[in-house]
Amino acid sequence: MTDYKEPTKKKDYKIQYPEVNTVQELDFSQTYSYAHYLRWAFEDRMELIKGKVFHMSPAPAPVHQRVSVNLASELHQYLKGSCCVVYPAPFDVRLPGKSLLDEDIFTVVQPDISIVCDESKIDGRGCIGAPEIIIEILSPGNGQRELKTKFSLYQEHGVKEYWIVYPSEHIIMKYVLDENGRFDSGTHYMGNEPLVSELLPGFCLSMEDVFGLLTI
């Protein structure tokens, strides 16, 4: 378990980090921290992965949004009354290294759905630390490089379950973190096979409830 260094003093980032009003002002070859990220005033959605800027896809397609709503609704219903909460995107997840200081955090992602069971990880700006479950719903713009990067990132930071949803194939791939801190080889869920979760006892997710009569 990582021993985080707690922030000692809130800093005035308006002085140290000038406001950035357009994406064109960013230098994609540079390394940025969460402190920089807080000063980005443009509307484009960005993620930081180990200090590098990743421009997220434009507004998701209707199919993506319908799948997201279906998943979030099923999970919300199941988790009512528990300590776990469903957070749909846009929702910032900061994945720190040894320090919780804004200038020392270099990874900020916006998973499509995050499930957080530790209330101490939630603050006014999102989640700091790994959610128990992260769900990413693929869009046409998602490439293999992005998939590999996120897979390694979530494994490194101890996400306990990682679901990848393939709307066009009506498939969900679930990876579970093992005792050695590595994701297993994954389990496919499709057709009439319901998805079950090691972290959510009794939860049973029908693929029909996720994908319904969707057409791509």
Core attributes:
six-stranded mixed sheet; four-stranded mixed sheet; globular; tt1808, chain A; alpha+beta; 216 residues
Please provide a brief summary of the model.
The protein has 216 residues and is of the alpha+beta class. The protein folds into 2 domains: 43 residues, no CATH class; 150 residues, tt1808, chain A (Alpha-Beta Complex), CATH 3.90.1570.10.
Describe it for me?
There is one protein chain. The protein contains five helices and 14 strands. It is an alpha+beta fold and 216 residues long. Helix 4 (144-156) links the parallel strand 9 (133-137) and strand 10 (161-166). It is globular and about 55 Å long. The model has no long low-confidence stretch (mean pLDDT 91).
Distance between the termini: 42 Å
The H-and-E topology, N to C, reads as: HHEEHEEEEEEEHEEEEEH
| Helicity, as a percent range | 10-25%
Q: Estimate the global geometry from the Cα principal axes.
A: globular
Strand-residue proportion: 15-25%
Based on DSSP secondary structure assignment, what is the total number of beta strands? 14
CATH homologous superfamily descriptor of the largest domain: tt1808, chain A
Rg measurement, Å: 18 Å
The largest β sheet comes out as: 6 strands, mixed
Counting H and I runs of at least 4 residues, what is the number of helices? 5
Sheet with the most strands: spatial strand order? 3-6-9-10-11-12
As for the number of domains, it is 2
CATH architecture heading of the largest domain:
Alpha-Beta Complex
Q: Give the averaged pLDDT, no decimals.
A: 91
Looking at how many chains there are and whether they match, the oligomeric state comes to: single chain
Using the coordinates shown, work out and report the CATH topology of the largest domain. Answer: tt1808, chain A
The CATH class of the largest domain is Alpha Beta
Low-pLDDT stretches are: none
Report the structural category. Answer: alpha+beta
